[in-house]
Amino acid sequence: MSGDAKVTERPPAELDASEESEPEDAGEPGGTEVPSAHDLLSLPALAGVVSGIVRGQLVVHPSRESYVAVVDALRRAGFALCSDLCAVDYLRHLDREVLPGVEPERFEVVVNLTSITRAERLRIRVQVPERDPRLPTLFGVYPGTEAMEREAYDMFGIVFDGHPDMTRILMPDDWEGHPLRKDYSVGRVPVQFKEAPGPR
Amino acid sequence: MSEPTAPAPAGQPTEPAEGDWAEHDSAVLRLPDGLVFDSDDLDVEFGEDETMIINMGPQHPSTHGVLRIMMELEGETVLRSKPVIGYLHTGMEKTGEELTYVQGATNVTRMDYLSPLHNELVYSLATEELLGIEVPPRATWIRMLMCELNRISSHVMWTATNGMDLASTSMMIYGFREREMILSFFEKTTGLRMNHDYIRPGGVAADLPDGWEDDVAAIIDTIPGRVDEYDELLTGQPIFRERCEGVGIISPEVALALGATGPILRASGVAWDLRQAMPYLYYDQVDFDVIAGTVGDTFDRYAVRLNEIRESCRIVAQILDKLPPGDYRSQDKKVTPPPRARIDESMEALIHHFKIFTRGFEVPAGEAYAAVESPRGELGCYLVSDGTNKPYRLHVRAPSFVNLQSLPALLRGGLIADAIAIISSVDPVMGEVDR
Amino acid sequence: MGLEDLQHNFLTGQLEELVKWARRSSVWPATFGLACCAIEMMAAGAADFDLARFGMEVFRASPRQADLMIVAGRVSQKMAPVLRHVYDQMVEPKWVISMGVCASSGGMFNNYAIVQGVDQIVPVDVYAPGCPPSPQTLIHAILTLHEKIRTGELTRRPEEGVGEGIHVAEPVPGWVQPQASPVHLGTPR
Fold it and tell me: Could you tell me where the DSSP H helices lie in C10-121?
């Protein structure tokens, strides 16, 4: 596997330039005027937090320490629905390029928030190191993350501190290993007449 | 842009007070070790007896698949409950990392097996966002047509199983009769009755067959009349109403905090439908209403789904008029194989076809989150690509997985018989819950 | 106890035919719908592909009252013990139809999470391929089973008894080919 994985984010130097051009992108096809997501960057909790724009959508990269505060501030700013919380294992791309100011780690927890009032989405990506795979829970901010965090624990082994029930949810309780990690094999059983390794 | 003509929607959610959620409204049953619960907002009398924990499922005639619910009962009243899932975990997200983008739709389509076309659609939308390609208009309209028909068949199926759970076996038989009409159209168009693998990145797999207008017109001529019959059969029946009205009420703030979307959220009053609020495909060019309820009980969820069938019939009627001629898939050679006839004539076409179906195509590195409104709520797909021909991470945000978290809040304080009605009204599809 | 022990003469031969007719005309399935195949199983029981004409529209929830377990759908690692438990609760004579490719062989999901064929857990009488098999395929499988009941193939069991001794770690002599290697469930190698 050659090359680094480039996540297509413009570095913050371009952020100022893009802010002027953003408002027309942020308008909804239906024609209602929706304020740009960038006034969110003026929230005090987001000061100093690295962020970027990916295809017109704001992506915020808080540190582990500021993570819950950032999410809570965004919830108060109108992002009432936590659409999704998942984890990604970047074992094969540990040296990937992320925005300056962000240390890439093995695991990333990605939270997608939706604002009903603004009809907008926002993404939050936190880096979680392999030697200490812990992250504070969002259960106090969004109770709906309970099952999603349990799935991230089950599949990746990321422990969410403060979660009321940090147990496996999809695999049997006595299962060993975390299946969606990249160093866990698919578990393919050899099939007669089909020695090829892939699932084709 | 149509306004939602909902019966007095409860409107925008208010900002919640600090610390409200965890104490009161999540009420999730922890592993039993000193059973404590807060009784202040329950108006149920309970004596000094021990509570009993019973287990419902995973093999049970009305748990809509392999859902296991542990309920703490005081007599017949449910105090706390805990859904236990994982009995259908298939490792689809792991399998998705081993399949190329061309094969990926076969995998995701089996997640929510009652609305497989929506799974394929959201996967294709996420892939196309990363690829940066445009899908031709006809392909988009065909996708809309198939997805709306799928919504009708899913809601009809729900009405059938819901009726059966509430002891109306005739509803089961009637519902499947309607579903067969739509499934035979699907079989004609896609080749399969279920799990079609029809919507692929770049467009759809094949054009609509000749005579499709007649089939679709027959469907939308018959179904609204039948829906009126179901209305009379169920809504007009006092026992059904008794079992559903006032049962399993959820407020909009709690529903939003627990991440519930789809009919659960709409029935509680928040008229949030992705087709209208954040339109994808060409939903901004068709006229339809978003159905929202007032009370947020089981009856409202039933009414929302029933009326959504009517709205989907309306959309399909408009698509019948608006569908333009054209290509049914993108002409971008990178994603689309050549027409089958050319394989015999041209070596390049043969090689191109071979490469697409064995190796697939590479998708530029990046991440994308695409979401559609499936019959159960917001179905999202978070796709991370590292520039190869297989996804690096495929995560599907399944609406039923998140909706099941509202089950403890819904079941609290009700009877076991209500529990059946409530679980049925949440409409979980275990394929997408467990993936 | 049962047909197998009867000494065959004219009268018991007729009796056996009667019993086999009764058994195949009223096979009651147990509800074991797991995934997509369950929907097609329900469709087979509904009006368009009526199972009631074969005496099978009554899907019994209690395994004690059921004769046939149609394993409809993919069996995950967590569900496998439950499947065996329900099978054990069924009373003899009992049959199993493995519906769909996921139940027959693991299907398209050859991975850590899915049992590669439900015959690792319970003995299967008829396999119905398809993903999902259409209701016509399922009805064909059911009629094949009825045919097997009629010819009495299924009442000739090996001495060990149905399902007994079938253990994922070792093959049962006489039931499984001795050279087949057992598949280990659990964490992959």
Answer: 10-25, 36-45, 80-89, 101-105
Main-chain phi, psi angles of B103, to 5 degrees: -85, -15
| B102 within 8 A of B90, measured Cβ to Cβ | no
Question: Of C124, C119, C122, C95, which Cα lies nearest the Cα of C27?
Answer: C95
Question: Which class in CATH covers the domain with range C27-155?
Answer: alpha beta
Residues from chain A contacting residue C113 (CB–CB below 8 Å): 171, 179, 187
Interface subset of B 385-424, CB within 8 angstroms of A: 386-388, 392-393, 395, 397, 401-402, 404-405
> C106: nearest CA in chain A?
A189
Give the Cα separation of A70 and B86 in Å (integer): 32
A181 in C contact zone (CB under 8 Å): no
pLDDT, tens only, B7-37 = 333 433 344 444 444 444 444 544 444 444 5
pTM of the complete model = 0.83
Partner A contacted by B355 (CB < 8 A): no
User: pLDDT of A10-52, one tens digit each?
Assistant: 333 323 333 333 333 333 333 333 345 567 777 777 777 888 8
**Nearest residue of A to residue C78 by CA position?**
A172
CATH of B135-249+297-329, one of 1.10.645.10, 3.40.50.510, 2.60.40.10, 3.40.1170.20: 1.10.645.10
Query: H-type helices in chain A, by residue range?
Result: 15-26, 67-76, 146-156
Q: How far is A136 from chain C (nearest CA, A)?
A: 29
